[in-house]
Write a structure and sequence with these properties.
2 helices, mainly alpha
Length: 63
């Protein structure tokens, strides 16, 4: 029984803390999502380009 009281107490504290959180609005979430996607694409293209260049250089050294 004590275990259940502790769980209930924990969950009520979690609820109080969640209510203190400043949640972003829809526009902010959309903006941040676009930023993450664009940065991910830029990094992927950059690393892909480096991989391509190093592959060509290594092939010229080996062959």
């Amino acid at each position: 029984m004590e275990f259940i009281k502790k769980i209930i107490s924990f969950l009520s504290e979690v609820k109080m803390e969640i209510n203190k959180v400043s949640w972003p609005d829809d526009k902010e979430v959309f903006r941040y999502t676009i930023i993450v996607v664009v940065v991910s694409i830029v990094v992927a293209v950059f690393l892909g380009g480096l991989d391509f260049i190093f592959t060509i250089l290594l092939n010229k050294l080996i062959i």
